Amino acid sequence: MTGLEDFRATVRDWCAAHVPKDWRSNQTGVGDDEFVAFQKAWFAQLHTAGYAVPHWPAEWGGGMGVAQQIVLYQELAAADAPRLVLAFVGIHHAASTLLAAGTDEQRKRHLPAILDGEIWVQGFSEPEAGSDLAALRTTAKADGDNFIVNGQKLWASGAKHADWCLLLARTDPDAPKRHGISYFLMDMTTPGIDVRPIRNAVGDSHFCEIFLNDVAVPAANLVGPVNQGWQVAQATLGAERGMTMLELAERLSNAGFTWLLQACSPVEDPVVADRLAQFEIELTGLRGLCRDLVERTEAGQAGPADASIVKLYYSELLQRMTGYGAEIGGLAAHTVLTKPASSGWESGAWMLDFIGSWEWTIPGGASEIQRTIIGERGLGLPR
Predict the structure, then answer these.
(1) Cα–Cα–Cα angle for 262, 264, 266, nearest 5°?
(2) Domain Acyl-CoA dehydrogenase/oxidase C-terminal spans what residues (predicted)?
(3) Residue 87 and residue 91: Cα distance in Å, rounded?
(4) Pick from 49, 51, 216, 272: most CB atoms within 10 A?
(5) Alpha carbons 165 and 123: distance in angstroms, whole number
(6) Sequence-distant (≥ 6) Cβ neighbours of residue 356 within 8 angstroms
(7) Gap between the Cα atoms of 184 and 380, Å rounded
(8) pLDDT (tens digit per residue) in 103-129
(9) Residue 195: what pLDDT?
(10) Which residues are catalytic?
(11) What is the pLDDT of residue 113?
């Protein structure tokens, strides 16, 4: 076997020995404590095996080549491994920000801590600043060795479990929108922070509000220059693309499509068969797009709209697939109101998956925003 085939066999054997066989049933309907404990234990297993942060530089515990990373995510998806829900922001968004713009002291403090289980949340969106993130109103005023932060953040995924926050705040209210924002690392135990879970219609409280009242953030926690936070944030936002999208595409193509086939079996209606074949074609295209983006990003050849194309394609395909699952599943699919806490957006609980799919077509830049980026930056169309 070639080196890559050897690696695939190694990962496959590891998954067979370590992926919990009953994790879906054990993680369905669990409380917060059980969910957090399971997530941290699963992350520790992946870290011990060298599979938790393959995209990080070798000096920080990563160093895996792109081809191997692709194989790793393919095998984890094929084995129906739990997702790293709690660690996601830390190992992708926080790490990419620290590596791209953080100081040596910030990297030495937080990257090892993330590997030890430090949990992060993204404090970007606000009630009046969602897709138009540059309209944010949270302020940070210099006061000696600190910045005093006041404002509100919304749709902060997992904030109730977080140790640290990636925070955007306005440090120059008179500057143009994108030129007066600074980027901070905020300790979530700091006095003045109030985290309030947002309970949705099915009882989940994944999203949270964060209220900030005279929160003192040390100036040493500033990432990049003052008023240059918008540029720094591009590294964070970029972490939602590339390899993370490839992982999500593999999961949708494996577990997601498998659940859909089961929901439609036996496939006797030619209309249903045609729809399934169309989904399979689209999934093949998605995997190809993601791999192409990863390889060209690694080579420094990605275009300005390429990530938006992948994000738009994935999110709308996810919504179509989960919507069809809810449709084909009939009334029974509408009565399933629990899903495994450590699963993704393709758990087979179709109505909940469909509701969750809107997390991808609205946050992180709504589909309309992505089309605008593709038109203006990718195709060169006028505003």
Answers:
(1) 90
(2) 227-378
(3) 6
(4) 51
(5) 6
(6) 322, 345
(7) 33
(8) 999 999 999 999 999 999 999 999 989
(9) 98
(10) 240
(11) 98
